[in-house]
């Protein structure tokens, strides 16, 4: 049997035993994830330095601390998130029990990018585990050192059935980024070292909309500048393209920032800052349209990896009330049913 097929079979079997559904099992997995971060912090810092030359300060702030915060939040709120969510009822369903039940999808696949290789692997993993799923985790093959730590060390802290699939690193992304340096003209930076996979922070000017650097996510230290004549032209430029994962508006005028926010759409938005919305578990992180589906961070991760099952439970012996719905129909019965089905969210009781 193909080893991947065997792995998937074992994971599905593990899920169908029901062992991942209990709060105790989910919490144990999350605590294991927390121990992985705490006991291997230096190893993770070293791996991030090797892959991305991140300083210990940046690694702790943008990768480890955010991931640990998600774990802490999930452990603190796990049972509350798992509870059935009561929903408003109309007159016709006042005697029924209506709620949304959060059910795990079962077996989920998480594919991580390489720009924040720890953060963008573990934060969705927290939500998937909290929601009671079995997980196949695919770290980025580009961030080789972090991939190695996740593949070899992380499984020791989780249930032996949440394996990690990895691949061999290559120079593809470096070559792609270096090719983008040919767009427009380099105003700042532009240096590169293939042996160290290093590209200096670079600003490109006189960039044309049709050039490759304006056609894809950059995922690198390259900032292309395209001149426009007005805020209207900037907004029009944004809106005729696919919706971005994040949009950052910088201006001395709060009205300009608010206008960009109101007249555009993106996965996330920051005014006069970048990235910081990612640090808040109270804000969802995710794209819209071509920039991604779903959202995570805190309870948003739990909800993304849960099936929200619509439930209505009706007591037996209600056929006299139900009879209004059955033939022979009449205008009076229709009026009564339409009134009863209005979404009033009333708290009245049928007597």
Number of helical runs? 12
Topology order in helix (H) and strand (E) letters: HHHHEEEHEHHEEEEEHEHEHEHH
Shape: globular
Evaluate the radius of gyration: 26 Å
Tell me, rounded to a whole number, the average pLDDT.
86
Strand order of the largest sheet: 1-2-12
**Number of separate strands:** 12
Assembly type of the shown chains? single chain
Distance between the termini: 63 Å
Q: Indicate the proportion of strand residues.
A: 5-15%
Give the class from helix and strand content and strand pairing: alpha/beta
Low-pLDDT runs: 163-170, 347-351
What percent of the residues sit in helical stretches (DSSP H or I)?
Answer: 25-40%
Major sheet characteristics: 3 strands, antiparallel
How would you explain this protein's 3D organization?
There is one protein chain. With 351 residues, this protein is α/β, with parallel strands linked by helices. The chain has helices at 3-16, 23-39, 41-52, 56-82, 119-130, 144-152, 172-180, 231-239, 254-263, 299-304, 319-322, 331-340, and strands at 85-86, 97-104, 107-111, 134-138, 185-188, 192-193, 198-199, 202-205, 222-224, 246-249, 268-271, 306-313. β10, α9 (254-263) and β11 form a beta-alpha-beta unit. α2 packs antiparallel against α4, α3 (41-52) crosses α4 (56-82) and α4 (56-82) runs parallel beside α5 (119-130). The radius of gyration is 26 Å and the shape is globular.
